[in-house]
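Severity: low
Component: inverse-folding endpoint
Summary: output formatting inconsistent between runs
Steps to reproduce: submit the following structure tokens with default settings.
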């Protein structure tokens, strides 16, 4: 729940993941170590399509230091060392991030997850797996649940949009109905569910985007959210189209204003892992807000505080129909 003590310097007006981690792990510094398991996606390899989601260049959301690492073992060892030295991290969450990290048979996934979790075991506290809703089934959920006796396990799924029309336009190869089916499978499991959304598709109006909150709210199995503004990156289909014919994207101020409208609608217990995304600048085409990640975070946080925005203040439970 949100701490309402506004004199507390960590007060932000929303449940931020940093504060949540500090509380959960009793002040220890916990960092995610990104691991590339060498997966692809069903809308890349032809089973559901080619080319991937039109806004995606998988390298754009993988920090350059995590790319091209030869083995899971080395990625974990190097990632932990980097976080220890660079960020003075105490504990680590192994984060399978790039592509679709459940897109393989369960026995193969087990081999990979086991390998990643077998180094620095005393300091690994969690496993986080990024995937798509159409690559989740009961067997894979059972596999992930088998780690929960030793680790906190979160399953991060790209919802991206709640509109099937948008999902079709971005070549997602997966409908919102499939998202709902996956969420139903995840009801009453021991996994912490995180959903990822993208705001700013040029054909979605503000009202359409604000409606994401009510859709997310109605699934109590969702514990974390990651909000992301649409950015256009090199190596993506949208990037090619944008260069040919640029379209309107959020300015930083518009996005911060949008967050101020969205957050009051968001269920008060949801923990917000991220308010925006940022690709490496060498890949970013637009919008380039000209600020570092920490400066963007500060800008949005200040706007939220200045406006007195409180997560969930306008949240309404969905009516129960009998
Ligand atoms: S956004 Fe995710 S599912 Fe879509 S192509 Fe990129 S990695 Fe694959």
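Observed output (run 2 of 3):
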């Amino acid at each position: 729940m949100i701490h309402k003590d506004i004199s507390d310097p960590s007060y932000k007006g929303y449940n931020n993941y940093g504060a949540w981690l500090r509380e959960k792990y009793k002040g220890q510094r916990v960092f995610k170590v990104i691991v590339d398991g060498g997966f692809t996606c069903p809308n890349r390899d032809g089973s559901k399509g080619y080319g991937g989601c039109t806004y995606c260049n998988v390298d754009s959301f993988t920090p350059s230091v995590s790319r091209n690492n030869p083995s899971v073992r080395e990625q974990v060892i190097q990632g932990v060392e980097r976080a220890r030295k660079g960020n003075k991290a105490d504990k680590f969450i192994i984060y399978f991030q790039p592509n679709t990290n459940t897109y393989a048979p369960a026995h193969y996934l087990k081999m990979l997850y086991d390998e990643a979790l077998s180094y620095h075991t005393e300091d690994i506290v969690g496993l986080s797996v990024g995937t798509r809703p159409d690559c989740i089934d009961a067997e894979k959920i059972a596999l992930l649940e088998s780690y929960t006796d030793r680790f906190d396990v979160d399953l991060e799924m790209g919802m991206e949009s709640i509109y099937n029309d948008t999902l079709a336009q971005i070549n997602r190869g997966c409908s919102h109905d499939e998202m709902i089916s996956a969420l139903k499978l995840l009801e009453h499991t021991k996994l912490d569910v995180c959903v990822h959304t993208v705001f700013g598709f040029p054909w979605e109006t503000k009202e359409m985007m604000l409606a994401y909150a009510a859709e997310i709210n109605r699934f109590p199995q969702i514990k974390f959210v990651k909000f992301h503004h649409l950015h256009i990156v090199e190596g993506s289909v949208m990037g090619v189209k944008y260069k040919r014919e640029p379209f309107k994207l959020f300015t930083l101020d518009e996005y911060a204003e949008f967050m101020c409208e969205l957050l009051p609608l968001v269920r008060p217990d949801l923990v917000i892992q991220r308010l925006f995304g940022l690709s490496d600048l060498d890949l970013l085409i637009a919008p380039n807000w000209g600020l570092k990640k920490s400066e963007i975070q500060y800008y949005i946080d200040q706007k939220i505080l200045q406006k007195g925005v409180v997560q969930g203040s306008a949240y309404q439970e969905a009516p129960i129909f009998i």
